[in-house]
Amino acid sequence: MKKAGILNRHLCGALAELGHGDGVLVCDAGMPIPHGPRVVDLAFRAGVPSFAEVVEGLLEELVVEGATAASEVREANPGAARLLAGHFSELVYVSHERLKELSAGARLVVRTGEARPYANVLLRCGVFF
User: Fold this and answer.
1) What does the alpha-carbon distance between residue 43 and residue 65 come to, in Å, rounded to a whole number?
2) pTM, entire model
3) Catalytic choice (10, 20, 35, 96)
4) Tell me: the pLDDT tens digits for 30-61?
5) Active site residue 20
């Protein structure tokens, strides 16, 4: 058994399969899940695990070269907006409807237990070299 990092075997395996340019949607419990991408549902109960915990854990494991979020997050969920702005200096904002469209092209969806609106981000994987 791993003693550090992400322990969820489904998430750990899915992350290992990602390549440069692949998309990872990290979403709240209310985001519609697109058909097609692999889904790792971490939601245990409302708020557990939080969006922040999952994003920060993923950033310890992934190289991210870009991120996209719904523009509505800035007004509807200032905490999530601050978290994203703090991690991604060149965060791209699109409408929530556009984010849902873009998420259909993700290779992986990670569903959190977050119960606040617009706690969603589409990450684009980079390379470590």
Assistant:
1) 26
2) 0.95
3) 20
4) 999 999 999 999 999 999 999 999 999 999 99
5) yes
